[in-house]
Amino acid sequence: MSIQRLFALVAASLLVFPAIVWPLPPNPARIGGTVTLINSVQVRSADNIRTARTAHVADDDFSFKVSRADGSDFEPAAEDADGLNSQDHYVIDIPIHHAREQTGGALSGEMALVRVFVDGRELNVVSPPNGRIIVGNSGSITPVDLVVQDAENGETLYTQSQLDRAVRAAVETWDVGGDGVIDLREAIRALMIAAGVE
After folding, report:
1. In whole angstroms, how far apart are CA 179 and each of 132, 150, 167, 172, 186?
2. pLDDT bracket for residue 178 (50, 70, 90)
3. Helix (H) or strand (E) holding 173
4. Would you call 113 exposed, middle or buried from its count of C-beta atoms within 10 A (0-12, 13-18, 19+)?
5. How far does Cα 162 stand from its chain's mean position?
6. Which stretches does DSSP call E strand in the chain?
């Protein structure tokens, strides 16, 4: 009788705990966040983007993908193909490598690339720089807000160091008083010269 009970206990445990028999792949590393176009307009889940320049772009025109540093895809694919969710965020689950169950997944700590597409055309990811991220651990959730640039529309983005240099150069050029600050008179004079009035 005890052998029958033991057999029943083993059979019940296999039904209750199938992971013992069939190992499961690790939980993915999740990233997600907002998307801001270069002209500082955050993409919303509504159909209009609140700017005349990009009003033709709806949130569901966007798709997102994470690939390896060399551009190859993970298996299964790490992508969000249906635009933004109701909180105006994209969400991507990056599969994590497992020796038997998910050999095409990412290794925790591996560098990967976030890629953004609109109507199938790839945009430049400016922040994080060149779309580079570090893949988190299995089950991790990492916020990654994206700033993207559409080179086809002629939009230009300056990095923070380029902006800092431009500000220093402007102060050196227009700071007549030499105090390191451009006051109202100096700003008006700079505008007049730039406009060709003076």
Report:
1. 40, 39, 14, 10, 12
2. confident
3. helix 160-174
4. middle
5. 22
6. 29-33, 35-37, 62-68, 73-80, 90-94, 111-118, 121-127, 132-134, 141-143, 146-149
Q: Is residue 93 within 8 Å of residue 112, measured between CB atoms?
A: no
Environment class of residue 76 by beta-carbon count within 10 Å: exposed (0-12), middle (13-18) or buried (19+)?
Answer: middle
Average pLDDT, the chain: 77
Residue bearing tokens 């807000």: 145
Mean pLDDT to the nearest integer, 147-151: 82
The answer on pLDDT for 190 being more than 50 is yes
Closest by Cα among 61, 42, 60 to 51? 42
Question: Which residue, among 163, 151, 153, 149, has the nearest Cα to 37 in the 3D structure?
Answer: 149
pTM for the full model? 0.62
Q: Which residues, 6+ apart, have CB-to-CB distance to 145 below 8 Å?
A: 33, 34, 35, 36, 127
Give yes or no for a contact between 135 and 106, defined as CB atoms under 8 angstroms apart: yes
With both helix axes pointing from N to C terminus, report the angle between 160-174 and 184-195 in degrees, rounded to the nearest 10. 100
